[in-house]
């Protein structure tokens, strides 16, 4: 007898408005983020100091989140890659990937 077992990982619901803060000596940025979620896919809009920031590559797996914010600077963009754990419906935190200093970030739902 053979059985098939499925494991469903239900992501945390993060749809809505968040205030995200990058905490480091080099950066003290604060972003306004509006997440839109469809199952594990995450998209939305973001801004910093009233200027649009591009949100992309968003994904949720259980209580983990990953997304990118790209700030246009002339003909180039600065890309920040966010990775978080312990994501809940009211708060999330994590580290920036691809930075040497291991900068941390936190977000609170508004």
Overview of the structural elements:
This protein has strands at 16-23, 30-38, 41-48, 51-61, 64-73, 76-85, 91-97, 104-109. The chain has no helices and eight strands. 0% of the residues lie in helices and 63% in strands. The model has no long low-confidence stretch (mean pLDDT 90). The radius of gyration is 15 Å and the shape is elongated. The chain is an all-beta fold and 110 residues long. The chain has an eight-stranded antiparallel barrel. The relative contact order is 0.23.
Question: Any low-confidence stretches, pLDDT <50, length ≥5?
Answer: none
Name the helicity range: under 10%
Tell me the overall shape: elongated
The helix/strand class is mainly beta
Average per-residue pLDDT, rounded, comes to 90
Strand content: over 45%
Radius of gyration: 15 Å
**Beta strands, count:** 8
Going across the biggest sheet, name each strand in turn.
1-2-3-4-5-6-7-8
Biggest sheet architecture: 8 strands, antiparallel, barrel
So how many helices? 0
**SSE pattern:** EEEEEEEE
Q: How far apart are the termini? A: 52 Å
